[in-house]
Amino acid sequence: MINLSHISKSFGDTEVINDISFRVQAGERISLLGPGGCGKSTLLKLVLGLEEVDEGTIELFETEMTSANVKTRQDVLRRVGVAFQQGGLFDFMTVDENIRFAMDNMTEMSQAEMDEKIIYLLTKVKLPKTRTMFPYELSGGMKRRIGIARALATDPDVAIFDEPTSGLDPVTSTIILNMIGDMGDEKPNSSLIVSTSSVEVAIRFSSRVVLMREGKVTADDDWRKLIVEGDEWVRNFLGTRLIGIDINYAKELGLPKAFIDQHWS
Protein backbone atom coordinates (compact mmCIF):
# COMPACT_ATOMS: atom_id res chain seq x y z
CA MET A 1 0.00 0.00 0.00
CA ILE A 2 2.77 2.44 1.00
CA ASN A 3 6.49 2.24 0.29
CA LEU A 4 8.78 4.96 1.65
CA SER A 5 12.36 4.78 0.43
CA HIS A 6 15.10 6.96 1.94
CA ILE A 7 12.85 9.98 2.56
CA SER A 8 14.50 13.19 3.78
CA LYS A 9 13.07 16.67 4.35
CA SER A 10 14.55 19.90 5.69
CA PHE A 11 13.11 23.33 6.33
CA GLY A 12 15.97 25.77 5.87
CA ASP A 13 18.89 24.44 7.89
CA THR A 14 16.66 22.25 10.06
CA GLU A 15 16.52 18.60 9.06
CA VAL A 16 13.10 17.23 10.06
CA ILE A 17 13.04 13.84 8.27
CA ASN A 18 16.29 11.93 7.85
CA ASP A 19 16.52 8.91 5.53
CA ILE A 20 13.30 7.16 6.49
CA SER A 21 12.26 3.89 4.84
CA PHE A 22 9.44 1.47 5.64
CA ARG A 23 6.51 -0.30 4.00
CA VAL A 24 2.85 -0.73 4.86
CA GLN A 25 1.13 -3.84 3.54
CA ALA A 26 -2.55 -4.32 2.72
CA GLY A 27 -4.61 -4.96 5.84
CA GLU A 28 -1.84 -3.87 8.21
CA ARG A 29 -2.34 -1.73 11.29
CA ILE A 30 0.60 0.41 12.30
CA SER A 31 1.31 2.83 15.13
CA LEU A 32 3.66 5.64 14.12
CA LEU A 33 5.01 6.51 17.55
CA GLY A 34 7.45 9.08 18.87
CA PRO A 35 7.90 12.08 21.16
CA GLY A 36 6.49 15.44 20.15
CA GLY A 37 8.57 17.19 17.50
CA CYS A 38 10.18 13.99 16.18
CA GLY A 39 8.73 14.50 12.67
CA LYS A 40 5.61 12.29 12.65
CA SER A 41 3.22 14.94 11.31
CA THR A 42 5.75 16.10 8.71
CA LEU A 43 6.18 12.52 7.52
CA LEU A 44 2.42 12.16 7.09
CA LYS A 45 2.31 15.45 5.15
CA LEU A 46 4.97 14.07 2.81
CA VAL A 47 2.97 10.87 2.27
CA LEU A 48 -0.15 12.94 1.50
CA GLY A 49 1.69 15.27 -0.86
CA LEU A 50 1.12 18.32 1.38
CA GLU A 51 4.89 18.80 1.46
CA GLU A 52 7.49 17.89 -1.15
CA VAL A 53 10.33 15.52 -0.28
CA ASP A 54 13.93 16.68 -0.66
CA GLU A 55 15.25 13.19 -1.28
CA GLY A 56 13.82 9.70 -1.67
CA THR A 57 10.64 8.28 -3.16
CA ILE A 58 7.10 7.65 -1.97
CA GLU A 59 4.93 4.99 -3.58
CA LEU A 60 1.21 4.70 -2.92
CA PHE A 61 -0.47 1.65 -4.44
CA GLU A 62 2.64 1.14 -6.61
CA THR A 63 2.43 4.68 -8.03
CA GLU A 64 5.57 6.76 -7.55
CA MET A 65 4.06 9.94 -6.14
CA THR A 66 7.15 12.15 -6.01
CA SER A 67 7.33 12.30 -9.80
CA ALA A 68 3.62 11.83 -10.67
CA ASN A 69 1.62 14.60 -12.33
CA VAL A 70 -1.17 16.40 -10.51
CA LYS A 71 -4.02 14.31 -11.95
CA THR A 72 -2.30 11.03 -11.12
CA ARG A 73 -1.68 12.19 -7.56
CA GLN A 74 -5.30 13.21 -7.14
CA ASP A 75 -6.54 9.89 -8.48
CA VAL A 76 -4.30 7.95 -6.10
CA LEU A 77 -5.16 10.08 -3.07
CA ARG A 78 -8.85 9.35 -3.59
CA ARG A 79 -8.03 5.98 -2.09
CA VAL A 80 -6.68 7.54 1.12
CA GLY A 81 -8.73 8.77 4.09
CA VAL A 82 -7.30 11.17 6.66
CA ALA A 83 -8.41 12.34 10.11
CA PHE A 84 -6.34 15.34 11.14
CA GLN A 85 -5.47 16.47 14.67
CA GLN A 86 -8.42 18.05 16.49
CA GLY A 87 -10.75 16.60 13.84
CA GLY A 88 -9.83 19.09 11.10
CA LEU A 89 -13.47 19.91 10.34
CA PHE A 90 -14.57 22.89 8.28
CA ASP A 91 -16.06 25.36 10.77
CA PHE A 92 -18.51 26.81 8.25
CA MET A 93 -20.01 23.41 7.37
CA THR A 94 -22.42 21.25 9.32
CA VAL A 95 -21.43 17.72 10.28
CA ASP A 96 -23.45 16.42 7.33
CA GLU A 97 -21.70 18.82 4.93
CA ASN A 98 -18.26 17.96 6.30
CA ILE A 99 -18.73 14.25 5.67
CA ARG A 100 -20.50 14.81 2.35
CA PHE A 101 -17.62 17.02 1.15
CA ALA A 102 -15.25 14.05 1.26
CA MET A 103 -17.64 11.80 -0.64
CA ASP A 104 -18.51 14.51 -3.18
CA ASN A 105 -14.86 14.99 -4.10
CA MET A 106 -13.53 11.45 -3.80
CA THR A 107 -16.31 9.06 -4.83
CA GLU A 108 -18.99 8.56 -7.47
CA MET A 109 -21.77 8.02 -4.91
CA SER A 110 -25.25 9.32 -5.61
CA GLN A 111 -26.86 11.76 -3.18
CA ALA A 112 -29.10 8.98 -1.89
CA GLU A 113 -26.08 6.74 -1.27
CA MET A 114 -24.33 9.59 0.53
CA ASP A 115 -27.36 10.17 2.76
CA GLU A 116 -27.44 6.50 3.69
CA LYS A 117 -23.70 6.44 4.34
CA ILE A 118 -23.77 9.55 6.54
CA ILE A 119 -26.56 8.14 8.70
CA TYR A 120 -24.68 4.84 8.99
CA LEU A 121 -21.36 6.49 9.93
CA LEU A 122 -22.86 8.84 12.50
CA THR A 123 -24.61 5.89 14.09
CA LYS A 124 -21.32 3.96 14.19
CA VAL A 125 -19.53 6.80 15.98
CA LYS A 126 -22.55 7.16 18.31
CA LEU A 127 -23.44 10.69 17.18
CA PRO A 128 -26.62 10.16 15.12
CA LYS A 129 -28.23 13.46 16.14
CA THR A 130 -25.33 15.74 15.21
CA ARG A 131 -26.02 15.83 11.47
CA THR A 132 -27.16 19.48 11.37
CA MET A 133 -24.74 20.72 14.04
CA PHE A 134 -21.68 22.88 13.41
CA PRO A 135 -18.21 22.06 14.81
CA TYR A 136 -18.40 24.86 17.41
CA GLU A 137 -21.36 23.00 18.96
CA LEU A 138 -19.31 19.83 19.47
CA SER A 139 -16.89 18.78 22.21
CA GLY A 140 -13.31 17.85 21.38
CA GLY A 141 -14.07 14.14 21.53
CA MET A 142 -17.12 14.56 19.31
CA LYS A 143 -15.05 16.41 16.70
CA ARG A 144 -12.52 13.57 16.67
CA ARG A 145 -15.30 11.02 16.15
CA ILE A 146 -16.75 13.04 13.27
CA GLY A 147 -13.25 13.26 11.82
CA ILE A 148 -13.00 9.47 11.95
CA ALA A 149 -16.36 9.16 10.21
CA ARG A 150 -15.23 11.54 7.45
CA ALA A 151 -11.91 9.71 7.02
CA LEU A 152 -13.73 6.42 6.50
CA ALA A 153 -16.67 7.81 4.49
CA THR A 154 -14.99 7.09 1.16
CA ASP A 155 -14.14 3.45 2.01
CA PRO A 156 -10.40 4.19 1.67
CA ASP A 157 -7.76 1.57 1.07
CA VAL A 158 -5.48 3.46 3.47
CA ALA A 159 -6.74 5.49 6.44
CA ILE A 160 -4.43 7.77 8.44
CA PHE A 161 -5.30 9.16 11.88
CA ASP A 162 -3.01 11.89 13.20
CA GLU A 163 -3.02 12.04 17.03
CA PRO A 164 -6.67 10.94 17.27
CA THR A 165 -6.69 10.85 21.08
CA SER A 166 -4.36 13.67 22.14
CA GLY A 167 -5.78 15.78 24.94
CA LEU A 168 -8.74 13.49 25.51
CA ASP A 169 -9.66 11.64 28.68
CA PRO A 170 -8.94 7.87 28.90
CA VAL A 171 -12.56 6.84 28.43
CA THR A 172 -13.02 8.93 25.27
CA SER A 173 -9.62 7.77 23.98
CA THR A 174 -10.69 4.15 24.39
CA ILE A 175 -13.97 4.80 22.56
CA ILE A 176 -12.14 6.42 19.65
CA LEU A 177 -9.52 3.66 19.34
CA ASN A 178 -12.22 1.00 19.42
CA MET A 179 -14.20 2.84 16.74
CA ILE A 180 -11.21 3.06 14.44
CA GLY A 181 -10.51 -0.63 14.90
CA ASP A 182 -14.12 -1.74 14.54
CA MET A 183 -14.75 0.34 11.43
CA GLY A 184 -11.47 -0.86 9.95
CA ASP A 185 -12.58 -4.45 10.50
CA GLU A 186 -15.41 -3.85 8.03
CA LYS A 187 -12.81 -3.57 5.27
CA PRO A 188 -10.14 -6.12 6.23
CA ASN A 189 -7.76 -5.26 3.38
CA SER A 190 -7.59 -1.58 4.31
CA SER A 191 -4.42 -0.36 6.03
CA LEU A 192 -4.76 1.79 9.14
CA ILE A 193 -2.07 4.11 10.50
CA VAL A 194 -2.34 5.94 13.82
CA SER A 195 0.23 8.61 14.59
CA THR A 196 0.63 9.22 18.31
CA SER A 197 3.04 10.28 21.05
CA SER A 198 1.25 8.01 23.55
CA VAL A 199 2.85 4.62 24.16
CA GLU A 200 -0.38 3.25 25.59
CA VAL A 201 -2.38 4.32 22.52
CA ALA A 202 0.24 2.84 20.20
CA ILE A 203 0.41 -0.57 21.83
CA ARG A 204 -3.36 -0.81 22.19
CA PHE A 205 -3.88 -0.02 18.53
CA SER A 206 -1.40 -2.34 16.84
CA SER A 207 1.33 -4.90 17.33
CA ARG A 208 3.68 -3.20 14.89
CA VAL A 209 5.20 0.05 16.06
CA VAL A 210 7.31 2.34 13.85
CA LEU A 211 9.18 4.36 16.47
CA MET A 212 10.61 7.73 15.45
CA ARG A 213 13.25 9.84 17.15
CA GLU A 214 14.71 13.13 15.89
CA GLY A 215 13.49 12.62 12.34
CA LYS A 216 14.63 9.03 12.02
CA VAL A 217 13.02 5.60 12.41
CA THR A 218 14.86 4.17 15.38
CA ALA A 219 12.86 0.90 15.60
CA ASP A 220 10.23 -0.95 13.58
CA ASP A 221 8.89 -4.19 15.04
CA ASP A 222 6.33 -5.78 17.34
CA TRP A 223 6.26 -3.62 20.48
CA ARG A 224 6.31 -6.71 22.71
CA LYS A 225 9.72 -7.54 21.29
CA LEU A 226 11.02 -3.97 21.35
CA ILE A 227 10.10 -3.35 24.99
CA VAL A 228 12.34 -6.25 26.02
CA GLU A 229 14.96 -6.51 23.25
CA GLY A 230 15.22 -2.98 21.81
CA ASP A 231 18.19 -0.72 22.47
CA GLU A 232 18.33 1.27 25.70
CA TRP A 233 16.51 4.34 24.36
CA VAL A 234 13.74 2.24 22.83
CA ARG A 235 13.26 0.17 26.00
CA ASN A 236 13.18 3.30 28.13
CA PHE A 237 10.78 5.17 25.86
CA LEU A 238 8.32 2.29 25.75
CA GLY A 239 8.81 1.01 29.28
CA THR A 240 8.96 4.06 31.52
CA ARG A 241 5.48 5.11 30.41
CA LEU A 242 4.06 1.78 31.54
CA ILE A 243 5.92 1.06 34.77
CA GLY A 244 3.70 1.58 37.78
CA ILE A 245 0.35 0.83 36.20
CA ASP A 246 -1.91 -1.73 37.86
CA ILE A 247 -0.58 -5.26 37.39
CA ASN A 248 -3.90 -6.53 36.08
CA TYR A 249 -4.02 -3.72 33.50
CA ALA A 250 -0.43 -4.53 32.53
CA LYS A 251 -1.50 -8.10 31.80
CA GLU A 252 -4.59 -6.86 29.96
CA LEU A 253 -2.37 -4.76 27.67
CA GLY A 254 -0.38 -7.89 26.85
CA LEU A 255 2.93 -6.73 28.30
CA PRO A 256 5.54 -9.50 27.96
CA LYS A 257 6.05 -11.74 31.00
CA ALA A 258 9.75 -10.83 31.13
CA PHE A 259 8.84 -7.13 31.42
CA ILE A 260 6.18 -7.77 34.07
CA ASP A 261 8.50 -10.02 36.09
CA GLN A 262 11.18 -7.31 36.02
CA HIS A 263 8.99 -4.43 37.15
CA TRP A 264 6.21 -6.07 39.20
CA SER A 265 8.19 -8.76 41.02
Task: Give the helix level as a range of percent.
Answer: 40-55%
Any guess at the CATH architecture of the largest domain? 3-Layer(aba) Sandwich
- How many independent structural domains? 2
Strand order of the largest sheet: 6-7-8-3-9-10
Tell me the span between the first and last alpha carbons.
43 Å
Identify low-pLDDT runs: none
Overview of the molecule:
- It is a single chain.
- The chain folds into two domains: 186 residues, Rossmann fold (3-Layer(aba) Sandwich), CATH 3.40.50; 66 residues, no CATH class.
- It is built from eleven helices and ten strands.
- The strands form two sheets. A six-stranded mixed β-sheet has the order 6-7-8-3-9-10, sandwiched between helices. It has a four-stranded antiparallel β-sheet with strand order 2-1-4-5, covered by helices on one side.
- Helix 4 packs across helix 5.
- The chain is globular, with a radius of gyration of 19 Å.
- The model has no long low-confidence stretch (mean pLDDT 90).
